[in-house]
């Protein structure tokens, strides 16, 4: 892969506005080409995703103008392409649908408000440096969420494929709505949809092979194939217009698109509405940022660069606020477009600005031609796009590796399908954190004994070691925090009091990097309880910084005669008298 | 301290019903004495705490009958004394106050419903073995919560002390209400309150010293002094009756107490009310269980025993359901009463049953004498009791040990005082968990080098070691979970790409006990990204069980040529060529 000359020092992040200040003429070609290729992808995608959000398709185009330009101000990623994306569009449909009927002006107003609210949320998160919160979603949960959302998106488009009324925010309600309007299936619409899908698949597969067979590189062929959706838009619109499919057969089309650019205006202030939408806006912001940051990160890594999550938040925040001021709806960095942007040669966020300008041209000059664009073809574009989101590889791997994590994946996906996307992401977060807390609250602890002839001490259950029945050596393999102190206390009490004749118990802290205030108090209570029952608590192998803290807190004096040994061996030599073999069972 | 003969095998838990089956005649004396002493404490306390809950005082007595008996069925603690307690009573006042005006029949109905709901919550938690969730509250947060709640309780009683109307669920509203009724202060009530407090303090201090001076043991003297509140009740009632303080000076009194026992009846089913109260019931259940479990645990430890948290949950659940069926309100194990119960010689939960029977006697025969009991004296009892809850020692220690944990203590206490108890406990939980997630998401990582002449490798920032500029050795001192994989990734990328000339990076996993699915994927992505930039990722010192998992997941093949070494030294010998000194700065 070619090294990009002039890139900022390896390992450093793209400096703010640096891309503008450090602009070199050799970047221009790459940026223009990438900008054009992405615009070609963006026109059909933006319209299709706006339709997915139950909005007029041209709103997707509006949302592709200001946002990439606003994002470019803070961008810490070279090639992130900001605009409408599938999953966020699904969430917009779901959230806006709770306050307004799809297809109405109120619905659009709600979507605009969502853009404003989520933009503000993102901006605030960026300013307060909350970028790190998205790491609290485990990969299995994310995988389950995305796959289930993709399935939901697919089913949501069936109504456009069949030409019927649809509805519903989750699988049961969607299927119910489809079943109820089964009698109204429009065969012409269905035919159009199937033909659209066929065309897209043909171009992705056989046509691409044809191009490479003709001598084009795989990269160039890949980029040319990205024009497929736009080709479909043109052909489908032409077919509908020439054959009069909308008038004669009732094929549903986009209809008259307002000419020209959207006006720039502050969205209407409507506090009750905003309060209703706030929670949904927060979820949209989080999911959008998650998707965007992950693709920005992998692209940056290709150049040995890293992104700045807090700048990304601010950039996306401004992008969404910009969308709300220009009649758009919530946007974020899109995976497929950003990868194409990068592959096509984008060197700076100027590529995104160029895409935006090309969309402006479309709105100024080409909108009349969109009037005959059938919804069925837009649905086909969505269907083919989301197939790529369905991830069956990850679940298989996770099933092999960890059953409990597989369960979180399946549960998250299940909640998305059965209840809806917002419930799904919330369930996923709770599951991720719940499983994590459960695991870390039960630290691994091992009773150890001496490997004969050495100064090493190992787990009595795994090695042949010698122990002393009077001196119990217990190693804990985790930091001591409040979530695990009670477990620690319980296990130690069980070990010490459950075995007769124990006079000393040594807690080996070689793996302990941190002891918090709750654990400190637990240690003192244990020392006291043990002392009351004739057992002395000692510590061993306490790390330097931890020891400093313990001394500062006066723990050594609280140990009721217990000592703190530098090594386990030293403890054994000081306290132990007899020893016996322990053969692991 | 005398060894209790016949106690279950050291380290084992009190078997279910075992206390009944294994009952020995020599327990009876201790149980009866303890039961009587606790009843003596309980009569005034229960009435005072019911008043704190804005309920008629006799409701506290009702809540002291069935609960201890129901608890005894599941008890895993010998000496836990179940009944009304201060903090739970405060929470009942606060929660019930959101649905009904204090002092009305609806308010009492809400309190009864709360007992039912929290009882069911506790029972379900016990059945689903959710006892462990209470360990997710850090000690600093608990300390801040209890101290602030105690202060709030104190202020809530000022209206009884001053003889005015009061109100409010937090400090600002309480002070405001007091200020508004400042003109109505009743000097006789105030005098009575001051006198009551003086009597209690006199008995606790000088009188106790008198008793010990007369030759009684400190333990016996301590128990006798516990009768102080009951003595106050008798004297104060007599004073009010004889001097006609209620009629002549408007001193507020308990008034006519229904004679006899409460009826046993299922509480009215009122689903809308229950839905409103559910969240408060959950919080009351959690706080109640926390307090109860902590005192049960420390008492059990004195006998080298441990409690079973899930049985405790079921016992307390039944106790609260029993309270709701007998006109009572939410109860739990009380700290002071349980300690007294233990010290007075309780051997089994029969002591609690005996206390309950004595309360029955009071209700059957002594209620007419309670009519002249002034609220001011009950308030004095509460004030003196909660002073003991205020904990200034812990904050000082935590300030020394950890500023961030001190901040959680102060913040929790602040929220309790300024907003209210429920908000306070929720804030405390969020703070505890938030701080924990923050800490564990930034694991300690160290670049290490070789201690010359040895096979040991230590942190380059703390030791004089030798390193090889081509081979970067990084040790991570934490398990690899999803909350910290991005930090790990970020740090590693920064270290590898920030330093020129790195060809190999070895991740030393000696402290890693667990690698979850998200971390596994991160390692594979890192291996790929590094390989793309000419750096090979290796692992070293991977623990046995972890290695098994990695092999099962096929990670070794994903390392793009990286190896997994048994020791850091082996890695260095295989990969390193040159080495140079690094002097720590």
From TrEMBL, chains A, B:
Source taxon at top rank: Bacteria
Ranges of residues in domain STAS: 461-575
Keyword tags: Membrane, Transmembrane, Transmembrane helix
Annotated TM spans: 27-49, 55-74, 81-101, 107-128, 140-158, 178-202, 214-243, 277-296, 350-370, 376-394, 406-438
InterPro entries in alphabetical order: SLC26A/SulP_dom (IPR011547), SLC26A/SulP_fam (IPR001902), STAS_dom (IPR002645), STAS_dom_sf (IPR036513)
Coiled-coil portions: none
Pfam hit, one: STAS
PROSITE patterns: STAS
Bilayer topology: Multi-pass membrane protein
Cellular localization per UniProt: Membrane
Predominant localisation class: membrane
GO cellular component: membrane
Any GO BP: transmembrane transport
Protein name per its UniProtKB record: SulP family sulfate permease
């Amino acid at each position: 892969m070619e090294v990009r000359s002039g890139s900022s020092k390896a390992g450093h992040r793209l400096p703010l506005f640096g891309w503008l200040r450090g602009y070199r003429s050799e970047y221009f070609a790459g940026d223009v080409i990438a900008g054009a290729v992405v615009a070609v992808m963006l026109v059909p995608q933006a319209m299709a995703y706006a339709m997915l959000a139950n909005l007029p398709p041209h709103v997707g185009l509006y949302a592709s103008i200001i946002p990439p330009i606003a994002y470019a101000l803070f961008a810490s990623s070279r090639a992130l392409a900001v605009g409408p994306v599938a999953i966020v569009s699904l969430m917009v449909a779901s959230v806006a649908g709770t306050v307004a009927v799809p297809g109405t002006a109120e619905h659009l107003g709600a979507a605009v408000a969502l853009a404003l609210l989520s933009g503000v949320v993102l901006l605030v998160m960026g300013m307060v440096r909350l970028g790190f919160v998205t790491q609290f979603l485990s990969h299995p949960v994310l995988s389950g969420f995305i796959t289930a959302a993709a399935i939901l998106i697919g089913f949501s488009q069936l109504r456009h494929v069949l030409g019927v009324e649809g509805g519903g925010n989750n699988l049961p309600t969607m299927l119910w709505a489809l079943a109820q309007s089964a009698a109204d299936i429009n065969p012409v619409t269905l035919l159009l949809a199937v033909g659209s899908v066929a065309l897209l698949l043909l171009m992705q597969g056989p046509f691409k092979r044809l191009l490479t067979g003709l001598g084009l590189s795989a990269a160039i062929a890949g980029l040319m194939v990205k024009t497929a959706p736009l080709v479909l838009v043109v052909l489908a619109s032409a077919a509908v217009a020439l054959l009069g499919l909308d008038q004669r057969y009732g094929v549903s089309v986009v209809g008259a698109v307002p000419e020209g650019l959207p006006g720039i205006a502050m969205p209407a202030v409507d506090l009750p509405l905003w309060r209703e939408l706030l929670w949904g806006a927060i979820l949209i912001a989080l999911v959008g940022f998650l998707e965007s940051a992950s693709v920005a990160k992998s692209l940056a890594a290709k150049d040995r660069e890293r992104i700045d999550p807090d700048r990304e938040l601010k950039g996306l925040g401004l992008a969404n606020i910009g969308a709300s001021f220009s009649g758009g709806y919530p946007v974020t960095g899109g995976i497929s477009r950003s990868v194409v942007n990068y592959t096509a040669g984008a060197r700076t966020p100027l590529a995104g600005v160029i895409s935006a300008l090309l969309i402006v041209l479309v709105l100024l000059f080409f909108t009349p031609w969109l009037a005959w664009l059938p919804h069925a073809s837009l649905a086909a574009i969505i269907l083919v796009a989301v197939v790529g989101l369905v991830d069956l590889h990850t679940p298989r791997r996770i099933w092999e590796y960890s059953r409990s994590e597989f369960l979180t994946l399946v549960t998250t996906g299940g909640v998305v399908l059965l209840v809806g996307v917002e419930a799904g992401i919330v369930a996923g977060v709770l599951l991720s954190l719940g499983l994590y807390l459960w695991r870390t609250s039960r630290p691994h602890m091992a009773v150890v004994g001496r490997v004969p002839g050495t100064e090493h001490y190992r787990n009595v259950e795994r090695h042949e070691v010698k122990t002393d029945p009077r001196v119990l050596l217990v190693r804990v393999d985790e930091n001591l925090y409040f979530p695990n102190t009670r477990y620690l206390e319980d296990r130690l009490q069980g070990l010490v009091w459950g075995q007769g004749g124990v006079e000393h118990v040594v807690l080996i802290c070689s793996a302990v990097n941190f002891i918090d205030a709750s654990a400190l108090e637990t240690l003192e209570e244990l020392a006291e309880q043990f002392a009351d029952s004739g057992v002395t608590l000692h510590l061993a192998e306490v790390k330097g910084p931890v020891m400093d803290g313990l001394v500062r807190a006066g723990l050594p004096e609280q140990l009721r005669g217990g000592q703190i040994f530098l090594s386990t061996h030293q403890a054994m030599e000081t306290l132990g008298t007899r020893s016996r073999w322990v053969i692991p069972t």
